[in-house]
UniProtKB/TrEMBL annotation:
Chief location category: cytoplasm
Chain's role: Catalyzes the reversible isomerization of glucose-6-phosphate to fructose-6-phosphate.
Record PANTHER family: GLUCOSE-6-PHOSPHATE ISOMERASE (PTHR11469)
UniProt KW Isomerase keyword: yes
HAMAP family for the chain: G6P_isomerase (MF_00473)
SUPFAM superfamilies the record matches: SIS domain (SSF53697)
Subcellular location: Cytoplasm
Annotated catalysed reactions: alpha-D-glucose 6-phosphate = beta-D-fructose 6-phosphate
E.C. number(s) listed in UniProt: 5.3.1.9
Annotated source species: Alloalcanivorax gelatiniphagus
PROSITE patterns: P_GLUCOSE_ISOMERASE_1 (PS00765), P_GLUCOSE_ISOMERASE_2 (PS00174), P_GLUCOSE_ISOMERASE_3 (PS51463)
Gene3D superfamilies: 1.10.1390.10, Glucose-6-phosphate isomerase like protein, domain 1
Lineage: Bacteria, Pseudomonadati, Pseudomonadota, Gammaproteobacteria, Oceanospirillales
Transmembrane segment boundaries: none
Protein name: Glucose-6-phosphate isomerase
Length: 553
């Protein structure tokens, strides 16, 4: 690894940036008049020029309000912002996270093993993780009463929850070839509403708790972990250390804090400061994924992401999927002034994809201060929300079709379902349901793009039945929802977030905006308890705290 630093980066070429920006603004002036129906009528080859396949993912940008000329101008802006040097800096381990003075090397976690095997700390942790996975799947890992593990509870929040949750659910149909997998549960919410009913269902003798926290200080996670520990120690009052040794695994970048909490040294899996929380599913934080699909499956996930890493570094920008996905978002937000984006998976297996993407993008790029400490005078991350597409059709599509504001939509689906053999998975009607879902996906993106002109409605149709169309969208089709292709998809999003951050001049790897809330919540506990510290509060918070206290009494 070289010691590339930000000083090695060429400064932004401000003049070139201004020129590229102005060219895009002028171009957007014309684009404001475009309707997607006309763009398709004018250029029958639109799909061929504006779609791309890499890493098992087909991306169709042809339903975006842009042309090949737009992309050329966006690439000029990326060039002026020094994107190529930034990409090199990322992969050389430079301090791209400059406010915390460190690199962002999640890509390191998915590099293939080098010959030195165990010497490499990344591979060493992967092997430790593999040993734990094998012991659980084979039934060798025993609870303190000698029972095999049937249930694993991942206790974590944010990046220590959303990535493993999203991928475990998405890939659940991929049974590990070896052993018998446990049921894997996820608990994140600090209010106990998830863990309480779960513990009612579980047998403590056969339950393993995985405490996942990079910092091992997050109160949400530690409060749920303490409840789980209380539950287990109450179930086995005479077994002291055996409860901790047999029923708890810890995953963190802070081994000393895990030890202090009571996690046995043999049950600690480590990752590093240079892996951001929301970029950590590739590390031991991915343990629930490996328990769901097996270690070979987990390695496939890593391989798919590594393929996307190489594509991102090597492909020319005209054919570079993360670069294009990032540029299209910048076009929509900064030049067409489309400030919202809907993430719409047409596959229930991807039901946690929207929440995962919400954290990845909004925690990374919800920033307004640039590298020089100056406030930026343009929008950065759009507001992102989403839902499984077919359900969203019956919830908020009305707004997409006939509301007043433009929303950029992102459709994601698997071209082939690829059902595994056995049980209900082979039922013929399920194949038909997959086609039905894809039909809805394609129909919706078409109607959103073309509006009435998709249907050749006559002019007498009342206005309340009309569809304006011109709502832009990208469609991403995975060849199949395999571990490999999901790995590529996640890496694609990670890199496109980086591309956008470079264009916006912000740091996508810190999250200072969530720190203060954590601190003042701690102070508030006392205010709610006995009122101490309430005097300095604003009138609203003081009155609400008093209202709560009165009803607790
Ligand atoms: O929400 C802030 C945050 O720091 C996220 O970035 C992170 O993924 C989450 O909290 C959990 O943090 P930890 O893994 O340290 O418990």
């Amino acid at each position: 690894m070289t010691t590339s630093t930000l000083q090695n980066l060429p400064p932004h070429d401000d003049e070139a940036t201004r020129a590229a920006d102005q060219a895009l603004r002028d171009h957007a002036g014309q684009a404001g008049e475009w309707h997607l129906a006309d763009l398709f009528a004018d250029d029958p080859n639109r799909f061929d020029t504006l779609s791309l396949h890499a890493g098992g993912v087909l991306a169709d940008f042809s339903k975006q309000r842009l042309t090949a000329e737009t992309l050329e101008k966006l690439r000029a802006l990326a060039g002026a912002r020094g994107l190529d040097a930034w990409i090199r800096c990322l992969f050389e381990g430079g301090e791209v996270n400059w406010t915390e003075g460190r690199a962002a090397m999640h890509w390191r976690l998915r590099q293939p093993a080098r010959d030195d095997g165990e010497q490499d700390p990344v591979q060493a942790q992967l092997l430790r993780m593999e040993r734990i996975v094998k012991r659980i799947l084979s039934g060798q890992w025993r609870g303190c009463e000698g029972d095999a593990i049937t249930d694993v509870v991942n206790v974590g929040v944010g990046g220590s929850d959303l990535g493993p949750l999203m991928a475990s659910v998405a890939l659940h149909e991929n049974q590990p070839p070896e052993g018998r997998r446990p049921r894997v549960h996820f608990v994140s919410s600090m209010d106990g509403s998830q863990i309480a009913p779960l513990l009612d269902e579980l047998n403590p003798a056969t339950t393993l708790i995985v405490v996942s926290s990079k910092s091992f200080t997050t109160v949400d996670t530690l409060s749920n972990a303490a409840t789980a520990r209380y539950w287990l120690e109450k179930a086995f009052p005479d077994r002291n250390g055996a409860v901790l040794r047999c029923h708890f695994v810890g995953i963190s970048a802070k081994p000393e804090r895990m030890s202090e909490w009571g996690i046995h040294g043999d049950n600690q899996l480590l990752f590093w400061d240079w892996v951001g929380g929301r970029y950590s599913l590739w590390s031991a934080i991915g343990l629930p994924i490996a328990l769901t699909i097996g270690m070979d499956g987990f390695r496939e996930l890593l391989a798919g992401a590594n393929e996307m890493d190489r594509h991102f570094q090597d492909a020319p920008w005209e054919r570079n999927l993360p670069v294009l996905l990032g540029l299209v978002d910048v076009w929509n937000l900064n030049f067409l002034n489309i400030t919202a984006r809907a993430v719409l998976p047409y596959d229930g297996r991807l039901k946690h994809w929207p929440s995962y993407v919400e954290q990845l993008e909004m925690e990374s790029n919800g920033k307004s201060v640039d590298r020089d400490g100056q406030l930026v005078d343009y929008h950065t991350c759009p507001v992102i929300w989403g839902e499984v597409g077919p359900n969203a059709q019956h919830a908020f599509y009305q707004l997409l079709h006939q509301g007043t504001r433009p929303v950029a939509c992102e459709f994601i689906a698997a071209a082939r379902h690829g059902r595994r053999q056995g049980s209900s998975a082979e039922l013929q009607p399920l194949e038909e349901q997959h086609i039905l879902t894809l039909a809805n996906c394609l129909a919706q993106s078409r109607l959103l793009a073309l509006g009435d002109r998709a249907l050749a409605e006559d002019d007498d149709t009342p206005t309340y039945k009309r569809y304006r169309g011109n709502q832009p969208s990208t469609t991403l089709l995975l060849d199949e929802l395999t571990p490999r292709h999901l790995g590529a998809l996640v890496a694609l999003y990670e890199h496109k977030v980086f591309v956008q951050a470079v264009l916006w001049g912000i740091n996508p790897f810190d999250q200072w905006g969530v720190e203060m809330g954590k601190k003042i919540a701690t102070d508030m506990i006392q205010v709610l308890g006995n009122g101490d510290g309430g005097d300095g509060l604003d009138a609203s918070t003081r009155a609400l705290a008093r209202y709560v206290r009165e009803r607790q009494a």
